[in-house]
Amino acid sequence: MPQLSLSWLGLGQVAAFPWLLLLLVGASWLLARFLAWTYAFYDNCRRLQYFPQPPKQKWFWGHQVLIIATEEGLKNLTQMSATYPQGFRIWLGPIFPFLVLCHPDIIRSITNASAAIAPKDDLSIRFLKPWLGEGILLSGSGKWSRHRRMLTPAFHFNILKPYIKIFNRSVNIMHDKWQHLASEGSSRLDMFEHISLMTLDSLQKCIFSFDSHCQERPSEYIATILELSALVEKRNQHILQHMDFLYYLSHDGRRFHRACRLVHDFTDAVIQEQRRTLPTQGIDDFLKDKTLDFIDVLLLSKDEDGKVLSDEDVRAEADTFMFAGHDTTASGLSWVLYNLARHPEYQEHCRQEDRDPKEIEWYDLAQLPFLTMCVKESLRLHPPVPYTSRHCIWDIVLPDGRVIPKDAHSLICIINIIGIHHNPTVLPFPSTPDPLKERSPLAFIPFSVGPRNCIRQAFAMAKMKVVLALTLLRFRFLLDHTEPRRKPELIMRAEGGLWLRVEPLNAGLQ
């Protein structure tokens, strides 16, 4: 038998045995890993067989065509939730299973689990990490718990109250634009675009105490925020761009990197300036003379050991709030106005709750119960966050005895928020708007649920109520085909693919 020659490595035949041994050990290790993965995969498949599965359209791609991140994909999820009201399993490719949970009784087992047992999965948000860093949206359980405790004071009612004046000013600017456009005659514009600029304007003032006048003139920072949001959404829809090394070689990847750098530079400059101006003593006197913005609260926050947040952590939380705060509220507001246009009787009821069109005060928010119900019903019908995901570190037993197997790497549990909201076994006639419906708390999940629920809900609801109360007192919203055209009016492209007519009321012309 010929000897293996390693002369090309400068080694003699005597060295062949150790190299063969090393090769054998490496091959054995790879084989053992493959067999362990194969057994775990088989065991998971066996335990997942108790969850129903829709038919696959293509063997290799699995159910990917049914769950694409588009309006069609959301409709598919809603329809499958009606067919499988408890939940179902789907496959992304041939080897990546997902459990889609569609009923409050089923998701309760996960939502009641701690963040250490059922941590948030980064399935749909990992592409945000270069932009948002290790903020409260993306951080792991240990860092998340610390930041959650330190951020809670930032959303106390005493901090939120002064923001109401900021909301009033920002929405007044938007309304002035609408009045001007209406006075010039019928104009067509995108409602979501205008509302997004308004929410970004108010957020920039609340977070940074900075006024970019982005509603009146272009702002590079605001344009970059919108560009980053669009790039992340585009990347979600193209599976080949999910691989980082390919994405950052592409044109979109380079644009994303440049945009991240610009946003980080802006936030870093604000942090450095405000850290420099914060007094080292006499904090109480400083607080009496200043409305705290979000950056101030973060810079003043300390944990149980007296440690403060680093500049990088402050930047991550500020950028996270800027991203999450504008997109969800802008979407929610657009859908509320669309739904109120479809139901003029609800719109008029909301309009009658508050008769002062000049300014909304903090105490006024409690005097708008029907408007609040309409907001919640619209968020149920069209949740800004349609689903959230978890992966289970431990086995989780469901009420019916089925088990979600632990698998920290491949099995992902999707809490199908839009499916729960439209589940006919949870709520009769779920697609029919009715603000007076009574429902279980877990049958209404506007943003997130469980230990990692949305800390900014009070802020978002306060802003939405201020914007809607002022808007309904100054404008009437109708579906474009409901009545003969009258001037002045705006024609605004709304959610749902329809156009709304926006007519100024007398109160708005004073």
TrEMBL record:
Q: Which UniProt keywords apply?
A: Endoplasmic reticulum, Heme, Iron, Membrane, Metal-binding, Microsome, Monooxygenase, Oxidoreductase, Transmembrane, Transmembrane helix
One GO molecular-function annotation for this sequence?
Answer: monooxygenase activity
Q: Which SUPFAM superfamilies match?
A: Cytochrome P450
Q: Which cofactor does it need?
A: heme
Which residues are listed as membrane-spanning? 20-42
Protein's GO biological process: arachidonate metabolic process; menaquinone catabolic process; phylloquinone catabolic process
Q: Where in the cell is it found?
A: Endoplasmic reticulum membrane; Microsome membrane
Kindly state one GO CC term assigned in the UniProt record. endoplasmic reticulum membrane
Q: What's the domain of life for this entry?
A: Eukaryota
Identify the residues that bind heme: C454
Q: What does the sequence similarity comment in the record state about its family? A: Belongs to the cytochrome P450 family.
Q: What is this protein called?
A: Cytochrome P450 family 4 subfamily F member 12
The organism encoding this protein is: Pan troglodytes (Chimpanzee)
Q: What is the lineage of its organism?
A: Eukaryota, Metazoa, Chordata, Craniata, Vertebrata
Per the record, the gene is: LOC455801
